[in-house]
Design a protein that fits this description.
72% helix; 2 strands; mainly alpha; 210 residues; 7 helices
C-alpha cells in the first residue's frame, strides 16, 4: 500500500526546529569556549594590582623630587648635585617612566575592552621591572661609593663633606627600592593573568594510556 508524502508545511517546521537547535548548540559552544579562553580574574587580585600601581606614583614622584632638589655646596670642594652623577639621571628617568606608566595602567586595568588583553600589561610590567632592577643596582653602588669610597681607584668618600646630600640620596634610594618591589609583584601578577589563558600541558603518559 502506497502512503502519500507528508505535507510541505510539516517539512518546513521540522527544518526550522533543526536549524534553531543547531544555532543554540553553536552559541553554547562559543560561550563555553570564550569563558575558557578568558578566565575571570579574582577581585582580590585585581584590587592588589590596582593598589600596587597606585602606590608607584607617589613613591616615584617623591624619589624624583628628593633627587632633583638634592644639592649641597662645600667651600673646599664646590657644589654637588644630581647633575654631576650620571647614574642619578638614569634613576630619575626610570622613575618618571614608571610613574606615568603606573598611572595609565591603573585606569586601563578597569577598562573592559583592555582587561581581556593580558599581554598588554605583561610585557611593559616585565620591562619596567628589569629597568627598575638596573636602576636600583646603579643607585645602590653610587650611595655605597659616596659613603665608603674605593681605595683601589683612589676614590675617597664624600659624605663627610656633603652629609646633607648623602642623607637625602639615601632616602630617595629607599623609595626607589619600594617601587622595585612593587613592580616585581606586578610582574608576577601580570604573568599569572597572561599565562592563565592557556590550558596546562597534557601528560604524555596519560595520552598514551588513553
Amino acid at each position: 500500500m502506497f502512503l502519500p508524502p507528508p505535507p510541505k508545511e510539516e517539512e518546513h517546521l521540522v527544518l526550522r526546529s533543526n536549524q534553531r537547535w543547531e544555532t543554540t548548540t553553536q552559541e553554547k559552544e562559543r560561550s563555553s569556549s570564550s569563558s575558557k579562553q578568558q578566565p575571570q580574574v579574582p577581585m582580590s587580585l585585581k584590587l592588589i594590582d590596582t593598589c600596587l600601581r597606585l602606590s608607584v606614583v607617589p613613591l616615584s614622584v617623591a624619589a624624583i623630587w628628593l633627587t632633583v632638589t638634592n644639592h649641597q655646596s662645600n667651600p673646599d670642594y664646590g657644589n654637588l648635585d644630581y647633575h654631576s652623577i650620571m647614574g642619578l639621571k638614569y634613576m630619575v628617568g626610570v622613575s618618571a617612566v614608571c610613574a606615568i606608566y603606573a598611572l595609565l595602567s591603573t585606569f586601563s586595568s578597569w577598562v573592559v575592552c583592555l582587561v581581556s588583553k593580558a599581554w598588554l600589561f605583561f610585557v611593559p610590567d616585565q620591562v619596567l621591572a628589569y629597568l627598575m632592577t638596573t636602576s636600583v643596582a646603579g643607585a645602590t653602588e653610587i650611595v655605597y661609593l659616596l659613603n665608603k669610597g674605593d681605595k683601589q681607584v683612589t676614590w675617597s668618600e664624600v659624605c663627610s663633606s656633603y652629609p646633607h646630600f648623602c642623607s637625602k640620596l639615601t632616602i630617595a634610594l629607599g623609595l626607589h627600592v619600594f617601587v622595585l618591589f612593587a613592580f616585581l609583584f606586578l610582574s608576577v601578577i601580570s604573568a599569572y593573568r597572561a599565562f592563565s589563558l592557556f590550558d596546562p600541558p597534557c601528560d604524555s603518559q596519560a595520552n598514551n594510556n588513553a
